[in-house]
UniProtKB/TrEMBL annotation:
It comes from Pseudomonas moorei. This is Chemotaxis protein CheW. Pfam families: CheW. It is found in: Cytoplasm. Residues 78-224 form the CheW-like domain. One of its GO terms (cellular component) is cytosol. The keyword Cytoplasm applies. GO terms for biological process: chemotaxis; signal transduction. It comes from the Bacteria.
Amino acid sequence: MIASATFSVTREDAQAIDDCWNRIGIHGDKSCPLLSEHIHCRNCAVYSAAATRLLDRYALQQDDRVQVSSAVESEVKTRSLLMFRLGEEWLGLATRSLVEVAPLQAIHSLPHQRSGALLGVANVRGALVACLSLVELLGLDSISNVAPGTRVMPRMLIIAAHGGPVVVPVDEVDGIHAIDEQILDAASRSGTQASARYTRGVLQFRGRSLRWLDEEQLLSAVTRSLT
């Protein structure tokens, strides 16, 4: 679960892990000498160690930042947003609605699905969790033009929906950032979010146009998609 402190998740952490299963394993060219023994990468100790490492790094561990004085904290109020990418669009979601960021898992489709956003179920630590498409819910274009040679690692966000945890796959996770509430207030008043679904505002952050999601509206839409 997420504590009330500051957390950090970086793309560099993910990039430091050798995802051999995507190169020489079951999702690659299958040249790994261990594959004949283990049949599938998920049975291999190398895969298990990498998965554990990813979970450790993306469990939103508390950042060891130096605490600022209470006087400064009283002057500058911030809100923590997890920033992630879907297709070409960067989005921000309040961390209070987030359980954790997990490695990408296989999604198993369900027969007779009634919702276009419901992708199926995913196995999260032994439990089957409903998996939804934010691309479908938000009406986004899923096509991504990532520069050649750029290595990104898709993730699954586990969010705390009203009926229980729900998994949503994303193309990339940047991290959790504390945003000045004055900037967020200005974004919500700008009116640029009027045509965007489940959106509170749009702001510029580190050279990106970031769509700040309205977590209450989004979670309500998630619940409707599961019923």
